TrEMBL record:
It comes from the Bacteria. The lineage of its organism: Bacteria, Pseudomonadati, Pseudomonadota, Alphaproteobacteria, Sphingomonadales. InterPro entries: P-loop_NTPase (IPR027417), Stf3_sulfotransferase (IPR052736). This is Sulfotransferase family protein.
Amino acid sequence: MATIVDREPAIEDFAVTQDALDTLERLKSRAMQRTGLTDFGSTDFEKPLGLLLDEAIRVPRRLDWESEIETSLMGRLVLVDEWKRNPGYKDRTIVAPLVICGIPRTGTTALHKVLSVDPQFQGLNLWLASWPKPRPPQDRWVDEPGYQHAVALLEKRNADTPGLRAVHEMLVDEVEECLEILRYDFVTNRFPSITLMPRYDGWMQAQDQTPSYRNLADALKLIGLHDDRRWLLKNPGHFGNLDALFAVFPDARVVITHRDPVKSIGSVCSVLQNPQQFMDPNVDLHKVGAREVQFWGDAKAKTDAIRESERGAQILDVQHKDFHADPIGIVRAIYDHAGLVLNPDVEQDMRTWLAQNPSDKHGQHTYKLSDYGLTEEGIRAVFGEG
């Protein structure tokens, strides 16, 4: 039986049952069989995963929960193996990454994708987040086993949640969220955002995220081992974890997106409804609404405190409505903030991308606050006017 390693002290900590430990070992074994690898690196991930599994197996509801865990374990195995194969990653330095964050549904994805058009950036391609390794030449990607693995994962995800593309399209060769790497430590919003698990959720939110961000940095050093371009990163979850992000990337330039919270929080709940109901057809959507208000309300409070500190000069706030009204104007403001130059040819490529990717490309996204037990007044009491 593997040893469960303690992390930083937590509130509402709880013991891991033998059933959870047995499930953990079984999923580790399956991941090892599928990858042919055996080294998970540090065992620090085992306690958070044990806590997560302890809650997950108490209620027989998660239709494909174990495959989500197994996929994360496979990615961790591959990452550790590639670190050993490429020890030079330790000598790399990530200089002044440009980081996009904000409450989900505030325009982080569109901003991320349009900035990624600029070849002066390197980003976290989805397939490399699923199967981390030094980024090979792009003309070889389709022949990579990791690329084919990511294609299969994405096809399954889209089949399981058919409404996903309308609210968050994912493509294996395009840039994706840092969440796809952060989940390998199992101290992340990834899991409680797709199925309610209040005990693990409370424990997770009390943890210091800095160790996971250090692992993220090492993963980026590996992926960009032969690439000296500036990193462009995005993850809504960095909003609320800027203390950890600045501890690991002290010279980061951060762009925080904003939108009327009544729209963003309602939209967040609607996006999560598909995975929540896939995991549990009987999920209480009012609890989903309450959880998202609490989680992102706390994140806003933490971020506001960072903004008032000396780190505030490294943060640029962008309004969703301003980006939609003048996206290139916002891009120019971001480049000024980050000390970058926008090439005229790149600007034209960005304009082309924007024309080809309107916000309603995959259909309209509609929702009602009342479906999630929310009201406009209740949201504004937590978030203000936006």
